[in-house]
Amino acid sequence: MCGINGFISYITNKNSKNALNEIISMNNLIYHRGPDDDGVFVEKNESSTIAMGMRRLSIIDLHSGKQPIFSDDKQLVIVFNGEIYNYLELKEELLKEGVVFNTNSDTEVILKLYERDGISAFERLDGMFAFSIYDKRLNKVFIARDFFGEKPLYYTQFEGKFSWASELKSIVNNFGSKPKIDKAGLNLYLRLTYIPAPYSIYEGIFKLTPYSYIAYDLATNTYSVESIEEPQYPEKINADIDLNEAKKEVKNLVSQSVTSRSISDVPLGTFLSGGVDSSIVSLCLSQYKSSPIETFSVGFKKKSYDETDKSQLVAKLIKSNHHEFVIDDRDIEEDLHQILNNFDEPFADSSALPTYLVSKKTREHVTVALTGDGGDEVFGGYNKYYMGKFNRRYTGVVPKPIHSAIQNLSRPFLKVSNDNRGKRYRIKRLLNSFDYDGGFYWDIISLGFTGGELNDYLLPENRIIEPFKLYKDKTGITEPKSLTDFKLIDRLISLEGDMLVKVDRTSMLNSLECRAPFLNKELWKFVNTLPENFLLKGWNKKFLLKEAFKDEFPDGFLEKSKSGFGAPVGDWLRNSLKNELKYYIDINKLKKQGIFKADSIIKLVDDHLSGSADNTFKVWTFYCFQKWYHGIYKT
């Protein structure tokens, strides 16, 4: 696990000494991703200078896995970030063909496989990765990203240079001036609270989409973005499969995935929240290991957010060495600025804050942690997945005018003034989720501002009418209706842009590697061939996964409800963050900024601060944007 950087400069007066200093500088900016080691490669040819660098957090092959790694004839060179979980299997295949290895690292396996198979080798990799390979034979550079987008990869081409990096800071730092804000990125952020690939907050800087690679031609200084593989969507449904057969296969695949993701030459444990996914991962790891495993959880002093009783039950069941940390806003205050700024662009998923703290505490004990991330996306575990069925039934019975009347009449009774996410909050959110125009799912995933609300808060010149157009075109899903539709949208948008970004940045800021066994390409593909009612049976979410493992837990445990891994930021905004928030709504600053409608934003924030309304999600989205903006543009 580490971070990578690179650039290709085709400015004629660029010399290799400057290039060396520049790639070292890019590496230093991501020191936290790999404090154990670093490496650089710089070479000047007839038309350009190529530089590649990496920082390393040593997990596998601690002593001989130093990068960059070269082919025996020195015609290929690679820098790599991530883990390849099937590298031993691939290595054995190559050894049988007489291939000689100089290290025990998975990095060299990628290079040797590419040397034999070319870019088709990328399809063989089971893991999380971002890597770049310089192929002198073809005079090309190939830069690839994994199936789900677990490892980040940004890129840009400007002023005679093509650059790529694991984190935005390594690219932006080399701009002569701060790049402009990208309107699509801005609109997506305010809708979603994060920015999914291929967009970033900056014009001209992009994220490589998952399971894609960049082919850069050094002869012409041009590049293309290609798919590693184009899976069929939806996969062909196997209507003949028996439920018991599916349960056995799922249990086997999940157990195998946990085993493959537990390969490590350093101490390893699990994040254990007490929910279905983390409990199953922790169980499987405890069954694989011969000694008690290490488990870690975080709770809140605010009881409506605290669920440590569930993690304690599982820890006792599997006999783990359990570590529990209880936090409040004072624990966050010290690190809040560092946490939010490390995303390098606005990011408003409040669960990043406890994720950072549990990562920080976990790193004191282990270097690798398995997580339950991806279980909801793979097996259909979100409440929002009910809405396909619920929306059809409701809108088929209740005419739109009557629904509008219900919303208006219920508004005074559903008014929420604090951040406790109780029944009134959930009923209000449910009523606001119903949609009569076929696009309800796009508003459901808009955790910040819905499309209609943005008109009230964003100046017209900054609005984009259809920020989701690219994703609709890519999937062919304009009006999502089925669970398969919802899961595909979430994989491309929510998983890549939110969940995986949150875990990668907060864990790597603490030099902790996180691995997600549910994010397994073969598991995803198998589950997508199953009838939807195996996943969402009536109102029972993740039915198949729970059925597969229910015998391992006390009766009814996997059916217990669990809230999300959020943080009470609504309260914090009214207390410890209040003065900073009020600074961001200064009318002169807002007008100078030229992004928001000043009067509307000021009222939104004032209503929240006064307690007359709970505007937590919108105000936190605004706050995180302003914190990023004022840190970058120094206004």
UniProtKB/TrEMBL annotation:
**One GO biological process from the UniProt record?**
asparagine biosynthetic process
Keyword Transferase applies: no
Residues that coordinate or bind L-glutamine: D106
Q: Which UniProt keywords apply?
A: Amino-acid biosynthesis, Asparagine biosynthesis, ATP-binding, Glutamine amidotransferase, Ligase, Nucleotide-binding
InterPro entries attached here? Asn_synth_AEB, Asn_synthase, ASN_synthetase/amidase, AsnB_N, GATase_2_dom, Ntn_hydrolases_N, Rossmann-like_a/b/a_fold
Top EC class of this enzyme: ligase
Residue(s) at site: Important for beta-aspartyl-AMP intermediate formation:
D373
Q: What are its E.C. numbers?
A: 6.3.5.4
Cite a single GO MF annotation. ATP binding
Binding of ATP: at which residues?
A: V298
Sequence intervals crossing the membrane: none
One Pfam annotation, family name? GATase_7
Q: Which residues form the active site?
A: C2
Q: Which residues form the Glutamine amidotransferase type-2 domain?
A: 2-219
What family does this chain come from, according to its entry?
Answer: Belongs to the asparagine synthetase family.
* Name of the protein this chain belongs to: asparagine synthase (glutamine-hydrolyzing)
